[in-house]
């Protein structure tokens, strides 16, 4: 590397650390989180709040740097926001839920308090199902980093974990091992045809169950521990079998028969062959590549590639070792589509034309190849780095980081990029988006020191 390039690179990193520092949110004088974005040129809406999912990228970085206090404070304060009683009131958040975001408010008497948003303020009133999973995953990362189990073993924490497990393991109206959720229940918090059993939720659910299993002390929680032990293998087998797409599977589905009744059915979900975009997939799927489908349900197989769900499946061991390698092969072989000019696409391909109109409800923010509908999100870089380390494909992550670091600082750390290759800065993207900054720094930290991978990864069981 030329000296000049090295200096420029150091500047990029230095600025990223400075921005991250500025984003720290204080509550009663203690650091408790990071705001979503620091962009004074647009209306803040809720971007001046600390989002649970956004903070995870910052938190992992803080853990790596030994700044564990902010993560501990965050975990303690968000736990207090979790409803502990079932209110049987449709407008109140259910017991066990963790909010999407929170902010510090000052009362007329000058007292500070935290105000949570469980979706009752958010655009479209979406429920943040992923928050409680990220919370448990982060608590486990805190324990791995500090080797201090005492926080997780405190009775309030044991109770909090238990409530999350109860909420997600409860019997409902369906009989799948996967979790049934409404549209926009995760990072994609707008209507995008991801209601039902979307992959992102299933991957986070799996990782959270693994984390919960490690952290729950059996005394008094034996029933939940048994429920987790029962659910984990079923969930894993279901995803590995029914969500998997590669050329072999495509061939099998291509020859499926419909309307099979009873236990012996091969086509269990009654997927109609004509509902899959065969010719596109046939062209797109590399011989040795594959991925997990976006969603599987009654007569439904969403063949879009969703990045977060696939990468978390690799990191958490939800995908088998062979499947994990195939996912990384696919990313390598379809680099232009999935990484392009900015790592990396949130989903591929975009919904277009009639599909866009019907499925997004004509959402002007989610026009094809923009925002959630096929935009490129730099935050996903750290998950790519973690998955690359897990599968021994580090050079893929290095390539991605090299692409990102030439642009992010000059573009002022946008939230997302648009266009088929991610060349355009997102139409309505905030600048100085904190998980863009943290995602980039975290990807670098992980690649420079892969021994941090266990903060987020799980071994086969
Ligand atoms: C957008 C994203 C969501 C994120 C939030 C704050 O709503 O879709 O995933 O948490 O912004 O950055």
UniProtKB/TrEMBL annotation:
Keywords tagged on the record: Carbohydrate metabolism, Glycosidase, Hydrolase
GO molecular function: endo-alpha-N-acetylgalactosaminidase activity; sucrose alpha-glucosidase activity
Any one GO biological process: sucrose catabolic process
Pfam families assigned: Glyco_hydro_100
Superkingdom to which the source organism belongs: Bacteria
EC number: 3.2.1.26
Catalytic activity: Hydrolysis of terminal non-reducing beta-D-fructofuranoside residues in beta-D-fructofuranosides
InterPro entries, alphabetized: 6-hairpin_glycosidase_sf (IPR008928), 6hp_glycosidase-like_sf (IPR012341), Glyco_hydro_100 (IPR024746)
Record flagged with keyword DNA-binding: no
Family label: Belongs to the glycosyl hydrolase 100 family.
PANTHER family assigned to the protein according to its UniProt record, in alphabetical order: NEUTRAL_ALKALINE INVERTASE 3, CHLOROPLASTIC (PTHR31916:SF28), PTHR31916
Record protein name field: beta-fructofuranosidase
